[in-house]
Specification:
Elements: H1 15-33, H2 37-54, H3 59-65, H4 67-81, E1 90-94, H5 100-105, E2 111-116, E3 131-135, E4 148-154, H6 162-175, E5 176-187, H7 214-224, E6 228-235, E7 238-243, H8 249-260, H9 264-271, E8 279-285
Parallel strand pairs: 1-2, 1-4, 2-3, 4-5
Antiparallel strand pairs: 5-8, 6-7, 6-8
Helix pairs in contact: 1-2, 6-7
Length: about 290
């Protein structure tokens, strides 16, 4: 089988295991993409649970068993969140995975909601009293309206069916208090694909049902009503907020258009430069 990118040395799985993961995830992703909206209310949870139950070498399981790696990931994500967390706020995390970050944040805020479509990973977690784990159908955000001061997701938006992304974003917006903020971290399509299909294809075909660009994600945030929208770059104790406005958006769109016409290998290499489009953090303020 031909590889699009080199498998990194830190990857502990054999090529056969990676391909097994890719083949099943692609098959399940096609079921999601071809499903009707009513079917997806149960299908997200069903298909993600099937993946985690079948692929016992999935990184979510191996990372969970590696306390050192988990602690490093939580520390990196707190480098950004430290600029937003306060001890009296309500924090919402959508797609919390193994909930390590949500539990760490619970020590710094008053209340935590952890909302996910998958139930398998959370079955054996002993949650602190101020953390509430809630199962979603993939679109709904089952928390009281106007109750969340800070919402956060990491690698979530790209997992949603394109028809569901706007609806879920609207539900997050509705959950926020006035001036509440939503931090959305998602991979940029121009430096992708970023799911398991990255080893075999030029476009995401796994559970990254749609990867976005900065300008596309801005449009979604604008459509649901966010008052201010920023593109964030941060490094440890430094944070830079780039307002997405009339003067910055044309420049960003021009750069995106230029990258899209390049051959895949060139685009992937250039876009993966940390200061460009390797990933993106968008913050919307209600």
């Amino acid at each position: 089988m031909e590889l699009k990118i080199k498998i990194p040395s830190k990857e502990s799985r054999k090529l056969e295991q990676i391909y097994e993961h890719y083949a099943l995830e692609k098959q399940l992703a096609l079921r999601l993409l071809n499903s009707k909206k009513e079917e997806r209310k149960e299908l997200y949870t069903q298909l993600y649970d099937e993946l985690y139950q079948t692929i016992t070498h999935h990184p979510r399981w191996t990372r969970k068993s590696n306390a050192e790696t988990t602690a490093w990931i939580v520390e990196r994500r707190l480098e950004l969140l430290q600029f937003f967390l306060k001890d009296d706020i309500t924090y919402l995390e959508i797609g919390p995975g193994d909930c390590s970050l949500a539990i760490a944040v619970s020590q710094k805020v008053a209340k935590v909601y952890a909302v996910d479509v998958a139930t398998e990973v959370a079955k054996h977690i002993d949650f602190p009293q101020n953390v509430e784990f809630i199962v979603s159908d993939g679109c709904s955000i089952p928390v009281p309206p106007n109750s969340v001061d800070l919402a956060y997701s990491h690698q979530l938006m790209e997992h949603l069916h394109p028809e569901d992304a706007l609806e879920q974003l609207q539900n997050i917006y509705n959950a926020l208090t006035p001036n509440g903020q939503y931090i959305c971290i998602t991979p940029n399509r121009l430096s992708g694909p970023h799911d398991i299909s990255k080893y075999f294809e030029e476009l995401a075909t796994g559970f990254h049902l749609k990867e976005y660009t900065v300008s596309e994600l801005y449009q979604l945030f604008h459509n649901v009503g966010f008052n201010k929208i920023f593109w964030i770059k941060n490094q440890k104790n430094l944070i830079v907020k780039i307002p997405l406005q009339w003067w910055s958006l044309p420049l960003i769109r021009l750069a995106e258009m230029a990258l899209q016409i390049l051959p895949f290998s060139w685009r992937n290499k250039i876009a993966n430069t940390p200061l460009l489009f390797r990933g993106m953090t968008i913050v919307g303020i209600k």
